[in-house]
Amino acid sequence: MSKIADNIIPLYEAHAQRWDDIRRSNTAKGLMEADWLKRFTGLLPQQGAVLDCGCGAGEPMAGHLIREGFQITGIDSSSSMIGICRERFPQHQWLVADMRALTLPQQFNGILAWDSFFHLQRDDQRRMFPRFAALAADHAVLMFTSGTSNGEAIGTFEGQPLYHSSLAPEEYRALLSENGFDAVQYVENDPHCGNHTIWLCRKTS
């Protein structure tokens, strides 16, 4: 499985424009993530700073937040996707970076890892929680998507295997607590959001 996991970055880079086309096409009938983004932004200060980990080409998630008045720093391992972000939203900060090694000089009011965090192998996911804590300002909001149980799964994108993994919910809760976060809301397989499993969390210390 590790070889498939290691192919995540080159896979998205090779098909950056196709991924952007799919994401924008899927939102033509409405943004299914809108309710969760409303919950996320409802906990943020106005015009707060948001870090989007795995921002892709900036639409629809970062674009929605920008239109709501938030200041975005987006990171993605695909230089092609970051190039699209810079063209679309030049007044915001876009960085080619791997979240697993991310260090930045600022802290953020919100951290988003939507449909990106679950591409990391499980040990890498475990190591992300201290990193999230270091990047989070006081009372920051963290929202990410995961699986529903401990394990690995392989999907497909453009005819190639696409890696996903998840920890058990109990381990996510323990890691969040150990790193100063409370789970505000957790929903498995939300039928109103494409069956995503979603964590909405708040930094408490």
TrEMBL record:
It comes from the Bacteria. InterPro entries: Methyltransf_25, SAM-dependent_MTases_sf. GO terms for molecular function: methyltransferase activity. Residues 50-134 form the Methyltransferase domain. Transmembrane segments: none annotated. Pfam families: Methyltransf_25. GO terms for biological process: methylation. Keywords: Methyltransferase, Transferase. This is Methyltransferase family protein. It comes from Pseudochrobactrum asaccharolyticum.
